[in-house]
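seq:
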Amino acid sequence: MLPSTDEVGADTRRQLLLEILETESLFPHFQPIVDMKKNEVIGHEALIRGPAGSVMASPGALFQTAIENNLLHTLELLCRRFAIEKFAELKPGGKLFLNISASLLGTPEHTEGFTSELLQELGISIQDIVIELSEQHPFDQHGLTNSAVQYYRNMGFQVAVDDLGTGYSGLKLWSELNPEYVKIDRHFVSRIDTDAVKREFVRSICNISSAMGCKVIAEGIERREEVQTLMELGISIGQGFYLGYPSPEPQPTWTPLAINEIQVAESIAESETNETALALLRQAPAVAPDDTVLAVSELFRANSDMSALAVVQDGIPLGVVRKSDLLELFSTQYGRALYEKKPASRILSDDVLLVENDMSLVDVSRLVTGQEHSALQQDIIITQDGCYLGMGNLRDLLKRITELKIQNARYANPLTLLPGNVPINQELEALLKRTADFYVAYFDLNNFKPFNDSYGYSKGDQVIRLLGELLTCHASHANNFIGHIGGDDFVVIFRSPDWQMSCERILREFDKEVRGFYSPKDLQNEGLWSTDRKGVRSFFPLLGLAIGVVHPDPYRCGSFHEVAELAAMAKKEAKKHTHSALFVSRRRTTGLSVSGSDDKRQA
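struct:
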């Protein structure tokens, strides 16, 4: 593990920063800013990184050390030049967002017209540049905020207020500057879907921005649920690791793929494939911590298809060296000379996912989606009993999950899009094979045929979709499996301990929602008249939901056929009631007789 900046003395940090400035060892990165409604990249924020593997690699360490040594503006001007030059070289399109300190205007380091002249020289339009002023710095104490904005506006630049909500001038700064963009601080975006106070704050920001004609950008988006909530609140522009990581090469387009596609795996039965992380394994050489950076470079040259190499000591992986980091390091004027004889541990990154070779692909995908922002790197280290085995990558994981998604769709019920009989049976077989503990709930509608005959197949389909939605809403625990056998028959394979509570909640919700499908007359009569299967005119109560639950013994049930038979018997008992009912069977195998009555619970 590399030392943190806190563990390195102030003199050492100053010397490292001076070396970086002298050798110009700074590497611009670009994070996409996405219009989530249109699914397109509208611009990039320019960020900076120090030498990979150095304690000065992060922008936080760079700028904090620069502030401590009165070198902030020297560093900032260099960063700005590198960002603009790289943006001009790569031509990703859209706007370039540049972070600028307003106080720089009052320093000797400031050269009037520096930015506009550089843009003109490189053929970039001033209209494509947005100047970001951060609320994290108390600009007003310099008396330069308004003059800075006016200075840049007069030159044709647009302005953004960054980190709104973090303190200092806040709304006052926003109202006085009337910027073209305002960026909501990540604190108010993180888990906004679960926090009513944050939603109200953001809703207020949206209302104010609408009145001011200002565009709002949500920062720090890391989860799909945050995207959904923000768009419901009226914010369509966002930035964050969920939408795209900072990268040396700007991302010109955005496809809502990475985590969205991986999360498909959570709805795919593990049994659709018995594949584990071994399916992703690529035999790859490893490097030792004391191998030189030059030796690592030669190893990459010999293995051109590898994007990262594991650093291993005594069989235990410590992290990876990424090819992109190495190329960045060697691309500077003195980078190769300074680092080629240094040990690989100097450029080691421990920001990598480690998985055991016998972990299922579904669990690997859940690990990826459950990690914090840095987890979605493209490389995966695969181990056996903790020892290095080889490498995998996210691309192969996505490819396999896409294949599983297609396979799953082939067997999905067209009405509800839930998995059908084949994946249901495969899931049961896999659980039995692992002797896992699980419950099976069989759902069937009471009085469905007379309802369908009276109200038509279209309303009948609506009721079936309602039941599918209720199951998805109340039984979608990560380890559960929801399937649609066909018609009005559904099954949920519960691995979560709250199976009974979920079933009872589904019963209550169904009884409440289904009344909306009836006419006032039938509601008043609590049922309808129709012809039964024998052709006799009869009265039928309102639709009810029958649930039969079984707890199969995985050691004595020979196959999914036996589990299906158990579930069908339990469902048959539940359907003896014309109203909604839950029946829990005590029978655990088809060949086992149980004394005493089965446990019945009626809703």
